[in-house]
Amino acid sequence: MIPTTGPERAQGPAACTHAGSYRLDVTTQRWWWSDEVYAIHGFAPHEVVPTTELLLAHAHPDERDRAVAELDAASRTGRPFSAVHRVVDARGRARVVVVVGEGRGRAPVGGPAEVTGYFIDLTDVVDDRARAAATASIAAAAASRSAIDQAVGVVAFVRELDPEAAFLVLRAASNDANVPIRVLARAIVGALPTLQHDPGRVSQFLEGLLAPAHRTAVAGVRA
């Protein structure tokens, strides 16, 4: 049931156990998960067949309805989204996971042909106090689904940062370039289709766009 021509296993930053990529064929409802997404859900690679039902079964009961609504909206409109979810993996461990994605292509009956993006597991990235703050911040982002929040998710994924540090990178880049942060965020989000959501190409794009700001942000965090 899994397409053999799906995206190849993510390389670079996506190869860590805390982030991975996914793809959903909207017409056939077939999913492709990278090895890291299996790990986030508590499975060995290809131990199970990824399905929408399996995904929702691991969503926290209090957030399952919201997850259904978000997946439905993405499948119908293809609009970019960024959301935080609590996930209970196959081993019973609770995780805090950011899901970033958007539609690609055009289905014959309208809407996107597929939805692609990343799962970013923040559970072990930040300590309890920082995770509480990050969760509140990302939860607010999920409500607005703004370009800034989506860009924060992309930077966090590529740079392996928590959301607060990723936002510092964007803010520093905004200051250095003397442009509003929302303009910079739109540039990042707008480039994703051209980069075909390939983690390596996204990483190279961000290095070129944010490298000076990244040094400034890191220096500020370590100071």
UniProtKB/TrEMBL annotation:
GO terms for molecular function: RNA binding. It comes from the Bacteria. PROSITE patterns: ANTAR. Residues 128-189 form the ANTAR domain. InterPro entries: ANTAR, PAS-like_dom_sf, PAS_fold_3, WH-like_DNA-bd_sf. SMART domains: ANTAR. Pfam families: ANTAR (PF03861), PAS_3 (PF08447). This is ANTAR domain-containing protein. It comes from Cellulomonas hominis.
